[in-house]
Amino acid sequence: LRVNFLSSSNAKTWEVCVLTESGYKERHPQQASAKTLFDFLKKHFPDGEYHAVYESGFSGFSTYYALKEYGINCVVTHAADVPTTQYEEVMKTDKVDAAKLARSLRAGDIRPIYIREKENIDDRSVIRIRKTIQKQLSGYKARVKHLLHCNGVEIPERFVRPGTHWSRAFIKWLKEDVVLLSSSRLSLDLLVKQVETIRQTLLDATKSI
After folding, report:
1. pLDDT tens digits, one per residue of 109-121
2. Model confidence, pTM
3. Domain 2-115 adopts which CATH fold?
4. What does the radius of gyration of the chain's CA atoms come to, in whole angstroms?
5. How far is C-alpha 149 from the chain's CA centre?
6. N or C: which terminus of the chain has fewer CB atoms within 10 Å of its end residue's CB?
C-alpha cells in the first residue's frame, strides 16, 4: 500500500490520496493528525505496508516524525523534484498534488531529502539562530558608530587597532566618557545595553555548539 497526504495551507487538514499496488485509489481530506491517518489505514487496509510522502514546506518535519512513530514509512521531498505533467502544473490544487505525489511514490520516482534524527534538530536550529544573532549584533554596532558620527564623537586611537574595538575598555569608554550633543545620552545607553545583551546571547549560543 502506498499512501500520500498533503497538508493544506492552514495546516489544519491533510488531503489524503491512497494508492495500492493493485491500483485502488481513494482520496479524502482529514484532520491534520498522524493518529487519524493511522486509524484510517488500519481500518481499511489492516494488512498493508504503509508508505507516505509529502512536500517540504513551512510545517517542517514534525509530521514526518509523527508518522514514523505510528510505523508509517515516510519521506519528504522538494516540490521541484516531483515529476509533473502540464495538466498538474496548470491545475495545481491539493487534490492534484496529492495524487501526483502518490503516483510518483508508487513508481519510485520520489527523491527524498535528508532528515536529521529528532535528537539533532535543536543543534541545527541553534546554528541558524546564532547566525541571526551575529547579524543583529553587527547591526547594533553599526548603529552605535553612526550615532557617534552624527554627534561628532571621534573614536580614540587606542580603540582603532584590531582586538581593541568593542573590547571591555571600549564599552567602558562608551558608557562613561562619551558626551553627545544633547544633554541626554539615553539613545547611546540603550544601544550599548543592547550590544551587551546580544553579545551574551551570542556567547551562550556559541558555547552550546
Report:
1. 999 999 888 877 7
2. 0.66
3. Nucleotidyltransferase; domain 5 (3.30.420)
4. 27
5. 38
6. C
